[in-house]
UniProtKB/TrEMBL annotation:
<keyword id="KW-0378">Hydrolase</keyword>
<dbReference type="GO" id="GO:0008745">
    <property type="term" value="F:N-acetylmuramoyl-L-alanine amidase activity"/>
</dbReference>
<keyword id="KW-0961">Cell wall biogenesis/degradation</keyword>
<dbReference type="InterPro" id="IPR051206">
    <property type="entry name" value="NAMLAA_amidase_2"/>
</dbReference>
<protein>
    <recommendedName>
        <fullName>1,6-anhydro-N-acetylmuramyl-L-alanine amidase AmpD</fullName>
        <ecNumber>3.5.1.28</ecNumber>
    </recommendedName>
</protein>
<dbReference type="InterPro" id="IPR036505">
    <property type="entry name" value="Amidase/PGRP_sf"/>
</dbReference>
<dbReference type="Pfam" id="PF01510">
    <property type="entry name" value="Amidase_2"/>
</dbReference>
<keyword id="KW-0862">Zinc</keyword>
<keyword id="KW-0479">Metal-binding</keyword>
<comment type="similarity">
    <text>Belongs to the N-acetylmuramoyl-L-alanine amidase 2 family.</text>
</comment>
<keyword id="KW-0963">Cytoplasm</keyword>
<feature type="domain" description="N-acetylmuramoyl-L-alanine amidase">
    <location>
        <begin position="19"/>
        <end position="167"/>
    </location>
</feature>
<dbReference type="InterPro" id="IPR002502">
    <property type="entry name" value="Amidase_domain"/>
</dbReference>
Amino acid sequence: MQLTIDADGVCQGARQVPSPNHDARPAGEAVSLVVIHNISLPPGQFGGDDIERLFTNRIDPQAHPGYDELARLRVSAHFVIRRDGALVQFVPAGARAWHAGVSNWCGRERCNDFSVGIELEGSDHVPFAGPQYATLLPLLAALAARYPLQAIAGHSEIAPGRKTDPGPWFDWARVHAALPQLRTTFSALPGTPTL
């Protein structure tokens, strides 16, 4: 799979589902970080359209316990990669999606300002599917070709103690092998090269 990101931050090859939950990045702020998340709605269940409903402010608060709280949130990610590898884009990569919350990366707060958020349909408790990596790796390469990316981090790394995703099943070694020029969790482990 080959993906490209145009000058507006739109990924050619992604299904577009515009989210209202975004705004402009601060003036002069470049995309330098990708944040990997996981999501499943209802929790632990895959398929369905509740993720799209959440990111477009259309989730039914009565559809599942806990959805009443979710219905009050205004959140988004730039991309979601479904279990079958299907790629959905909610926010152009050049805009600021609302995915990171209170966050800090290498001493920089407000990670939404300088990051792209990618949600993998999954949870902390099951491995991600092969087709998801088959989409994720070309997407990361396309983002690296368009923006001055420096690193890929998990939500747990930018919001430690508050978030746990993408969880222990995410294959950091696979991502690092495909994009060794970017700092990843794997590249930061003892005995591995760092940038």
